[in-house]
Design goal:
heterodimer; A: 200 residues; alpha/beta; Rossmann fold; 37% helix; B: 627 residues; mainly alpha; Na+/H+ antiporter like fold; 2 domains; 6-stranded parallel sheet; 26 helices; 4% strand; elongated
Chain lengths: 200, 627
């Protein structure tokens, strides 16, 4: 049985984001992939928790795909985490429904990769800044993978964007395989690097 | 004839004739009138002389109608209309009666008879005019309010007219045997005046301190028929009281209605009395039809035809002139002119009274009554003529004028039927978001305003298939049914579903009940009305047209905020302006101001926070200067 992948997409102004549509267009048209557009589905932030829980149950790999606004996710994704990951269901006593699932963030960020380092102007690495997501995953007994990132969106050329989009497609395609090398994937700081490593 | 067979005849005539008349686009009034003529003594002969009696009984329907009109009219609103009631009303009555008086004197009538006849002929029919205006959904338009003002003034004027008629008699004819005598006639003049005021005072005080507590008690019993009974009791009691002091029962009922307009039982009273009013008015019109004396007409056709034509011509000319003085636009003026050009039901009362007083001869009395009935019958036909022939030629054009002949007509994806307070919010919101809509509306003043503001507007009844077609219903994506009257809205939905199955329908529901009806019809996009639902509906239109739903929702939130601020601004503005004679006209000015404020405000401005385009441009500029 191949794995099923759920892309939880959160972008308040998707119609204005070329890079995100580029990434979203990479999602293979196959029943194994579910693209879930949170801002389109819940314009008034009124999240249907039962529906979301069912979606999570039905999938093995969860992707939080969003722009990296202010070193975090847009508000609706935070709302989603607050509402859906319930005590006694996702964590705490009896909170085992997400156990063993894979989860990671796919982000688009304005700054270059070099800016996200101890010496860069953002002072922290992307992995450090994503710590709340990582810990959320851990508390829910999920395996957290490093992020897939599209950097420098403000200065990106078309070719660079298309190249990264191609990596994303290869990543998505490989996620359906039953035996993913999770440990190997976790040893990279970005999933982009793992994909490049695989191709070589 | 026994009661059952009588009832059977009247009801059958109504059930057969009214739907046919409606179907032919003539309105229910004409249907009832023809039903009356049909069963009257000159065609089928089912009813004979009792037509007159039936009419006396059914005049009570007019009383009820005025009570209901009063209920819908809050005192503050009534007060705002005072200028048009007094101004327009007195101008119409004075001028019409004056001109007719001169003509009658010139043709050799004694001045007493001339005065009585001219005053009677100056009256218009509240029953016909208001019924027709309401059926066409024009109550809130300038012409609707002008008609209402004139009719109300006439209702009030009936009182002094009936009071002075006895003074016109020669050799002191008394009519104590006629039954029109009231106990206060024996009183001295000053006491009569006092009792008049007392009666009005009683109505006011009773409305305030007696009727409402009584209704509250009755409502507690939870017996619906008891509430209906007390509503009927109320109107009958008022009518009695008014007759006792010699006032017009219709006026008394109207006053009582106004007093009760602010009470919590307004809607219950309305819905309880509505069917009675409808039936009695129908009966009244049947009576009018049945009482037309065709023998008399046959014996002097030219005299009667001449009278009918000249009376209506004089009345129409005066009405049109008065409308001009009060600056009604052409088509509004035409509409109200034709709606009021007949002689009204009060003329029957005045004529029979003057006949009893022997001011005019019995022959003239029945001639005049026939003239009155004929003018009433002609009115709906004239209105039809106006709607189909005269207005399209001289008034607001149905279709917007072509700007350039060779320009390909732009098809808008959205059609809004009804641009009242609900539809206009949607139109404004869509326009702010760059979506143009085609608008259908039946208020000519509003149509002119909207065209001036650059909207594409079709004028007329939105339930008409040809109008929907020319508005582009074949190619549009969404039709918004936002007409104020639930019945008309329902009719529109039925028509649209039948002829334009591909058109997405979004409907405004006035109440929960209406929403149920729409659900039964299989509608899914139903919006129970309020400011918020109209904005929600507009945001959903954007989503259906392919906009992101979160963006649409945020634009909706922003619009609500903006509209709230605009409301406060406009409320202040309202008091700065000169007093408007017609409330409807002031509403237009306010709407015009609001629409132009919309244009000044850039509501479509996007949130820059999430727009990386902005940052990109900023950075690019920065690096250029760095080089």
């Amino acid at each position: 049985m191949s794995k099923r992948i759920l892309i939880l997409f959160a972008h308040p102004r998707f119609e204005k984001s070329l890079n995100n549509s580029l990434l979203v267009n990479q999602i293979p048209a196959s029943p194994n992939y579910t693209f879930h557009d949170l801002y389109e589905r819940y314009p008034d932030f009124n999240i249907d928790v039962e529906h979301e829980k069912q979606l999570l149950e039905d999938h093995d790999v969860i992707i939080w795909q969003h722009p990296f606004y202010w070193y975090s996710a847009p508000p609706l994704l935070k709302q989603w985490i607050d509402m859906v990951l319930e005590f006694g269901w996702a964590y705490g006593p009896g909170g085992t429904h997400l156990q063993g699932k894979l989860v990671f963030n796919t982000i688009t960020a304005g700054g270059q990769r070099s800016a996200y380092s101890k010496d860069g102007y953002n002072r922290f690495t992307i992995n450090e800044l994503l710590a709340p997501f990582e810990q959320t995953a851990r508390l829910c007994k999920m395996s957290y993978l490093p992020p897939f990132a599209l950097h420098g969106t403000h200065r990106l050329t078309k070719e660079e964007a298309v190249e990264t989009a191609g990596q994303y497609r290869r990543l998505l395609e490989s996620l359906v395989h039953d035996h993913l090398p999770v440990d190997q994937m976790q040893s990279f700081s970005y999933l982009n690097d793992w994909v490049i490593n695989q191709t070589l | 004839m026994d009661f059952l067979s009588q009832a059977l005849i009247y009801l059958a005539a109504a059930v057969v004739c009214v739907p046919i008349a409606k179907r032919l686009g003539m309105g229910s009034v004409l249907g009832y009138l023809f039903a009356g003529i049909l069963i009257g003594p000159f065609i089928l002969g089912f009813i004979g002389k009792e037509g007159q009696d039936i009419m006396h009984f059914a005049e009570f329907g007019v009383v009820m109608m005025l009570f209901l009109i009063g209920l819908e009219l809050e005192p503050s609103h009534f007060w705002r209309l005072r200028k048009s009631i007094l101004g327009l009303g007195s101008l119409q009555l004075g001028l019409t009666a004056g001109i007719l008086f001169m003509i009658l004197i010139a043709t050799g009538f004694r001045w007493q008879a001339a005065l009585a006849i001219s005053l009677a002929l100056a009256m218009s029919s509240t029953a016909i005019a208001l019924q027709t205006i309401k059926e066409k959904g024009l109550s809130q338009t300038v012409s609707g309010q002008a008609s209402f003002s004139v009719l109300l003034f006439q209702d009030i004027a009936v009182i002094p007219i009936l009071a002075i008629l006895p003074l016109l008699t020669f050799h002191g004819t008394t009519i104590s045997e006629s039954g029109h005598q009231t106990f206060i006639d024996q009183m001295p003049g000053w006491l009569q005046t006092i009792s008049l005021f007392l009666a009005v005072g009683i109505i006011y005080a009773a409305g305030r301190f007696l009727i409402v507590p009584m209704l509250r008690l009755i409502a507690k019993t939870q017996l619906r028929e008891l509430f209906t009974a007390s509503a009927l009791f109320l109107v009958v009691a008022i009518a009695m009281l008014m007759q006792l002091v010699g006032l017009s029962p219709a006026l008394g009922a109207f006053l009582a209605g106004v007093v009760l307009a602010n009470s919590e039982y307004r809607h219950e009273l309305e819905s309880d009395l509505q069917p009675f009013k409808g039936l009695l008015l129908g009966l009244f019109f049947i009576g009018v039809g049945a009482s037309i004396n065709f023998d008399l007409i046959g014996s002097q056709p030219w005299l009667i035809a001449g009278l009918v034509i000249s009376v209506m011509a004089v009345k129409a000319a005066v009405l049109f002139f008065a409308g001009r003085v009060f600056k009604l636009t052409n088509d509004q003026n035409l509409l109200y002119t034709f709606a009021l050009s007949q002689v009204g039901e009060f003329a029957f009362v005045i004529f029979s009274f003057t006949g009893q007083l022997k001011i005019i001869s019995p022959e003239w009395m029945s001639t005049m009554m026939a003239v009155t009935a004929i003018t009433m019958t002609i009115t709906p036909l004239l209105l039809l003529l106006n709607e189909k022939v005269i207005d399209p030629r001289f008034g607001v054009k149905e279709k917007p004028a072509d700007r350039e002949a060779d320009q390909i007509e732009i098809k808008h994806p959205v059609i809004i039927a009804g641009f009242g307070h609900f539809g206009s919010t949607i139109g404004r919101f869509l326009r702010a978001n760059g979506v143009e809509a085609t608008i259908l509306d039946n208020d000519s003043n509003r149509v002119e305003l909207l065209r001036k503001m650059g909207f594409k507007v079709y004028y007329g009844d939105a339930t008409r298939l040809d109008l929907l077609k020319s508005a582009g219903a074949d190619d549009a994506k969404i039709l918004i049914a936002a007409i104020d009257s639930p019945e008309t809205n329902m009719e529109l939905v039925t028509t649209a579903r039948k002829y334009f199955p591909d058109l997405k329908l979004m409907v405004r529901a006035k109440s929960r009940i209406d929403a149920y009806d729409f659900i039964d019809m299989g509608m899914t996009d139903i919006y129970r009305e309020s400011l918020h639902t109209s904005v929600k509906m507009a945001a959903d239109v954007l989503t259906k047209l392919g906009h992101r739903s979160y963006t649409a929702a945020r634009q909706g939130q922003k619009f609500l905020q903006y509209d709230e601020e605009a409301l406060i601004r406009m409320a202040e503005l309202r008091h700065d302006q000169k007093q408007y004679i017609l409330q409807a006209r002031e509403n237009f000015r306010m709407q015009e101001e609001l629409l132009s404020q919309d244009l000044r405000q850039n509501l479509s401005e996007y949130d820059h926070a999430w727009d990386s385009e902005e940052i990109r441009e900023g950075l690019a500029k920065n690096s250029e200067t760095a080089k």
